[in-house]
Fold these 2 entries.
Entry 1:
Amino acid sequence: MIKRILVTLTALAASAFGQSGFAVIVSKSNPATHMPKAQLRRMVLGDMTSWPAGGKVLVVIATPGDPARGAMLKQICGMSESDFGKYISQKAFGGDSAAPKVLPSTAVVVKVVKLTPGGLGIVAASDADDSVKVLPVD
Amino acid sequence: MALPVEDNSHTLGPIQFRGFSDFTYGRPVLSTLQNTNLVNSTNGFSLGDFDLFTTAKLGEHFSMLGELLITSDFTNEFSAEMDRLLLTYAANDYFRISAGKYNTAIGFYSNEFNRARYFQTATGRPLLFTDEDDGGILPVHSIGLTANGKIPSGELGLHWVAEIANGRGSVSAAALLAGSAVEPVQNYVDEDNGKAVNFAIYARPSGWNGFQTGVSMYLDREHPLSLAALDQRIYSAYAALVRPHLELMTEGVYLRHEFTTNHDQFNTVSAYAQASYLFGRIRPYIRYEYQNVPMADPIFGILGRKDGPSVGVRFDLTDFVGLKIQYGRVGVSNGPTANDAQAQLAFAF
């Protein structure tokens, strides 16, 4: 219970840095301690496919309509769902396959991030449990 | 405990298919600039390229990309054309290499938007990026090897590109007027053993979302029919800011032909600038382009000078169907001014 409260507080602290409506989660084995906004944008948009400390990035997000996904796209990428769909399609025609993996729910996002050393998930702060690490976005 | 990922290394796929096409009413300005025996109407319907695009992972580091076009041109005949076909080995973010047919890394537009008119704000490419076989001055396609990657540069986001290819097959302007033709993208038959090389460097600063700027240098030696060999150098530079609501692009190319025998030089300049802004679902845009080929240029001399504006408006009917209405006017040094008015439905799937 205390862990759950700590995780929520960390997510709230991340919100205090300017982001609200979503939390960035990674595997507990990931050495990252924070997530620069520009780096998060590059990872989500497929421009950065490796972690600074090494290892491939696997960005996982829930399906369109998920509020956390929508909040992240708007605040980090400056895009609507429609803009993001076009951007990913255009990148695909350019030969770039580094699009985020879309999973059916935030519960699955948490589960996949927990089990994937290079995983990076976007969920609502309240969905991040103590099985994963929440990175403050700065 | 690692995620139990299915081992696909001994099976093929998954294969992804995508595609695009467009349908246009009106007269593309280019159709008035070509040497053709066809009588062209100002209110014709036309189908654009029908593109079938395939990608597949072939292993942890290998992938393929294929882009097949069913296309028609100024002959009115439809034909199949392999626009891109690449086998890629991607070691990491800093090095990946592809073999096959690719878009030459000259400038921004053709590599950012590729062929799909749906992803382009305007109804077509700038004159500068006209296909080789439609009278374009650039070798926008190459067959050979292309390598690229990031350069460790922090916030600057530098990338490199190096390419070696067969280069462009050429025919002199005089021979072209006399009816000779050469397929410009050389595949089985290369006119010489020399290879074309291209180097590019560009930056995508992480602090400036959507901005990209870069330069490139392309070197080749051409052997046009019935002329002495000539060296071709193409230098390009661009700056582009492409965001969902705002698009500002400008790029220019300096192309020099120099005979290897008497060192006579012919310098061509081609450039464009384009701006658009999305108001709700409507995106007005404007483009101005300029291309000046010296009449004495042994390869492209018949193109002469062209310059003029295009203005238009784009409206997205759904996420992947766009409607565009455009008017363009191009002044031509060796002919009458060309006007075009078009309505285009472009879609991707």
Entry 2:
Amino acid sequence: MPINFDSALGINEDALILRTQRAEILANNIANADTPNYKARDIDFSAALSGAQSSMQLKQSSTHAGHQTNLLMPDHSQALVYREAIQPSIDGNTVDLQQEMARYTDNSIRFQGSFQILNSSFKGLAKAIKGE
Amino acid sequence: MSLSNVFDIAGSAMSAQSIRLNTVSSNMANAQSVSSSEGETYKALKPIFKVNVPTPDQVRRRDPAIMAGQGVSVTEIVKSDAPLRMVYEPNHPMANDEGYIFYPNVNIVEEMADMISASRSFQINTEIMNTAKQMLQKTLTLGN
């Protein structure tokens, strides 16, 4: 049974990176809560994650040393979408501060969830190496 | 690492909000600064917020988090063109030939609302920073 990091760590590694990127996007929404005409954005998480998974399989098809093998989620900017406003505002801003804050917190909790799993995978690997 | 960008984003928002708070305090302080002509009168200052758009170099990296924008900045501070309050006070030492003095176009109620909004936005961005810090610290413990 071949053991490599990709199969041992699974989806959680990509999920963790996506969570940090989503944190950045949501932080940007909140930072621009008072900017006129700013449109709130978010990533379609499952689409981005499946993009990450497919790019993971594509890693093996690099035929030249210059190919970017660790380019994560090459088409995942397509997953970046605009949020639909709940109610229109006079200045054209579509940030709902409470909702964004809730999503940001939710995102950080899920980050911790993925982190826990990743952490225990590493612990498991370490145990296997030591033969405990 | 995207998480450290969150600090920059929240930091940019905090500095923008403190500039806004500065204009509010300047407006409030000068709310009663009368003068005898329209040109000399203090006009309410308003900051213009703008989202930081990614540079072409960053766009080439196609990172969605960067594509979404990198915080906020104050591009300029404009003077409000709302009409000044003209009051007939012939006995006022600053009164012009017709007996009028000019009060600034500062709306105290609006400024108060702006002040509270700015301080709340500041607060929420410190919260964002705090959460990002926790996430980052958690990441550092990976494998322990």
